[in-house]
Every structure is written in structure tokens, then in C-alpha cells.
Amino acid sequence: MSDRNLRLAIQKSGRLSEKCRDLLAQAGMNFEFRTDRLISRARDQALELMLVRDDDIPGFVKNQVSQLGIVGLNVLEEKLGPSHNGDNPVEIIRRLGFGRCRLSLAVPKAMAFDGISSLSGKRIATSYPRILQNYLKANEISAKVVEITGSVEVAPSIGIADLICDLVSTGATLESNGLREATVLLESEAVLVRPRQELSRAQEDLIEKLLARIDGLQKAKSSKYIMMNAPRDAVYRISQLIPGMERPTILPLMSDDSMVAIHAVASEDVFWETIEKLKEAGASSILVMPIEKIIA
Ligand code: ATP
Ligand code: ZN
Q1: 1 belongs to a structural domain
Q2: 10 and 91 co-located in one domain
Q3: I need a labelling partner for 112 at 20 to 30 A (CA). Which of 78, 157, 259, 290 fits?
């Protein structure tokens, strides 16, 4: 691979795949997705996509087999250790806000749990031995870690562990196995990662361009475009009611000098309460619209 090209590794098929593809499509990176191929190239861009198992992504980025990767924070920390450690060979450059879940300890409903000291001497089944060991060590708890790769939630009922440490999102799987969540070890979401080491100029430029696009999308997602008509003398009061608004556009209205149109970007969602206050302040014909992209 030339150092003018950039490779991004994403999960081939699983919980993160679709969201990764959506994100790339929204960022204008269009790939031909073929699951029978490991690598596909973006149309007219120097970006290549690698479709792999999520477990391989941290190692690929570490070894620069790919220069970018999207992976769950849980997998990253399990494979390479704490992500906040400045010595970690892989660096998180964006948190992406999807694939949210938590790595938690869960105990059988009948088991008493009053604080982590209850874990002393217990057998804990998990697919995340490294994160769990670090947690136990940090809390000076001596417990036995039983590593299993699939269906961790059944471990207590078949008698190979007293409790488990596993991923939870809604808690439904725990519930149906007679378990309850006791403590959260890690709040996870999908993250965009790169090697900490500097890359070629062309690769660094491509990463910067991709990040600007992702930021534009993320900023847009939390923002709204708001338009309304208002009495000219209420403009100041109204502008103070719109969350996170900077410099609204004020336009004259045809055939009514006392009224203006106000257009503004609100950096947060505009709730009904705000709209009601805007009306009280004299605004009418209020429109709140989603924004697709924001480029500063
Ligand atoms: P692969 O075949 O790529 O190894 P996998 O079976 O290990 O896939 P998935 O179940 O697809 O992985 O989960 C991928 C990631 O999705 C998890 O590592 C985690 O970051 C995230 N995730 C979000 N919600 C959940 C959940 N409820 N359970 C498991 N993972 C979740
Ligand atoms: Zn996996």
C-alpha cells in the first residue's frame, strides 16, 4: 500500500457495521461493500476500507496495517489497555456516539451485593479478562477470573462462576438469565482510532479532512435551524431565548415595517418550552428544522 493511501478498518458484520457504513456515507465516502472482499476502495478517494472482525481492529491500527479504525471502547481497552494512558500505541481521535453499552458486573438475583468487597474470593466469568483484572487490582480485590468467549450470561446457572462481567445495553439478557447489574466498569461507545505515531503527510491530510467532515455531521446532529417572524422591538429578547445561538440573521418583511424575520442556528435542540417562550415574546410562524451539515 502506498503511503498516499489511508486504510480504515471497520467491523465486517455485527452491531457496529451498519452505523459505520452510514457514517462514512454521510461523510461522502462511498464504498462498494462486498463482504467477500477484505478491502474496498472509496470511489475517487485515496481511502481504503478493511472489513474485519472487531477484535482485530486495535492490533491492525497498532501495527499500521490500517491507519484508522472504528471499534468499541470495550474492545480497544481489552486488547491494548486503558485508552487514557498516553503510552497506548493507539489514540482515540473521536468518540462517535453509537454502539453504546456498558461493561458491568452482574450477579444472580439471590446473591447479596453490597459494594465491591462482596467480590472477594468469588469466580467471575468474562470475555474481558484484562479490563476485569485491572479493575480488581485497582480495588485490591482477590477473585478468580474465568475466561469464556461466548454466552457469558449462562455461566452462573451452569455453575462455572458465581457472577459475570459482561456487556449490557438494555439489561434484557441479564433479566432473562436471572441476573442483575451490580456495578459498571466501563461506559463504552464506538470510537475512531489511529496510531499515536505520526503518519505520512498525505495520510495526515486525509485524516484531517475526514475528521472535519465527521465534526460537521456531529455538530449538525445536535443543532437546529430556527426561523420565525417577530416584532422588530422584540428581536433582542427573542435572541436571548434561543439556546446557544450566535448572531441571528434579521430580514425585513415585505409590507410590514414593524416586523422582521429571524433566522438562526441553535446549537442545541429547541424544546417546546422554548417555543412557548418565543411565542410569549411575540414570535409567530416558528419553524424548527434539522440541519444536515455544518461547516464553520
Ligand atoms: P465480531 O464477529 O466482529 O467479532 P462480535 O460478536 O465480537 O463481532 P458484536 O456483538 O457485533 O461483536 O458487538 C460489537 C460491539 O458492539 C461490541 O464490542 C460493543 O462495543 C458494541 N455493543 C453495543 N451494544 C452491545 C450489546 N448490547 N452487546 C454487545 N455489544 C454491544
Ligand atoms: Zn468480536
Answers
A1: no
A2: yes
A3: 78
Residues 16 and 44 in one domain: yes
Residue minimizing CA distance to atom 21 of ligand 1:
99
Cβ-based neighbours of 277, under 8 Å, separated by 6 or more: 241
Mind listing the pLDDT tens digit of every residue in the chain (296 residues)? 778 789 999 999 999 999 999 999 999 888 877 777 788 877 767 899 999 999 999 999 999 999 999 999 999 999 999 988 888 999 999 999 999 999 999 999 999 888 999 999 999 999 999 999 999 999 999 999 999 998 999 999 999 999 999 999 999 999 999 999 999 999 999 999 999 999 999 999 999 999 999 999 999 988 999 999 999 999 999 999 988 777 899 999 998 999 999 999 998 888 899 999 999 999 999 999 999 998 87
**Measured from the CB, is residue 72 less than 6 Å from ligand 1?**
yes
Identify which of 158, 159, 129 has the alpha carbon closest to the alpha carbon of residue 143: 129
Residue 21 belongs to a domain: yes
- For ligand 1, is residue 186 a contact (CB within 6 Å)? no
Total number of domains in the chain: 3
Query: DSSP state, 151?
Result: -
Q: Pairing mode, if any, of strands 123-126 and 68-72?
A: unpaired
Range of the domain at 263: 223-290
